[in-house]
Amino acid sequence: MAQRFGEGVRSAVLAALLLPGQGFAAEFDCVIQPSRTVEVRAASEGLIEKILVDRGDVVKAGQVLVVLDSGVEREAIESARFRSTMRGRILGGESRAEYANAKHSRRENLVEKSFISAQDRDEALAEKRLADAEVITANEDRRLAEIEYRRLSEHLRLRTIKSPVDGIVVDRMLNAGELADNRDLRKPILRLADIGKLHVEVLMPLDAFGKLALGQNVEVHPEPRVGGRYTATVKVIDQVHDAASGTFGVRLEMANSGLKLPAGIKCKASFPAVGTRPGTSQAGTAGQERKPPSRAPGKPM
Fold first, then answer.
1. CATH code 3.20.20.30 for 2-36+194-271
2. CA dihedral in degrees (284, 198, 211, 228; nearest 10)?
3. Statement: the pTM of the whole predicted model exceeds 0.70
4. Contact (CB, 8 A) for 115 and 109
């Protein structure tokens, strides 16, 4: 975490401004970042037909970003759709089954009256069973055609790539007419940043550890060129500290309604009632005389 901010930010954290007084608040330097970055790739190899966004465009979750050429897939879907609606084999099988059932019934009556042999009756029974099996096979083939139609429809759906997040297009690496190769992990089509929800990364001195709680509200002040006041919530408190700098990381989560707040900017995070432990110097007050902590009436120091 300390490496993310660099030595400059690390030094600034150690020199954070502490407001004096009992139950005082403390301000620490922070950086506002996207909650996640997403590399948009094609699920299958194909020629890019359209890219509907460019660098800097704001996108919404579910918005169509890229369309791959899908002429072959559309024809395959039409063929599968037609096969799934064919009823010729089913009707023919049902007709043969109806005739075979009637023939078997007649042969049963004739055997009882000793007009035909039992072998003729057995042959009629076999024809009946074969005709019934043909009907079952025809229905199963139609069912398979329906499944194939849905499979190809799902494959066609993957040829249209939609945004998984509310955010902004950070970079565009390919253009219409180029091949989208899902095996090449080095070159996505687009790179998106999710700024609908922002992460605020803060480095804090070890004196503040144990004085924070998950879910605690923190006031965030973006740098002056952006301005404003925002409320964030403590989501992560690092349990692994940086001994070299004497700091630990805290992640805040902040909603960004309307995507009004940019990411990648500096800020100040104001933590209520974060003080220093007795016997340690306050950040930003090195070399100054520390006053002894106030003592509540009736309680020993």
1. no
2. 50
3. no
4. no
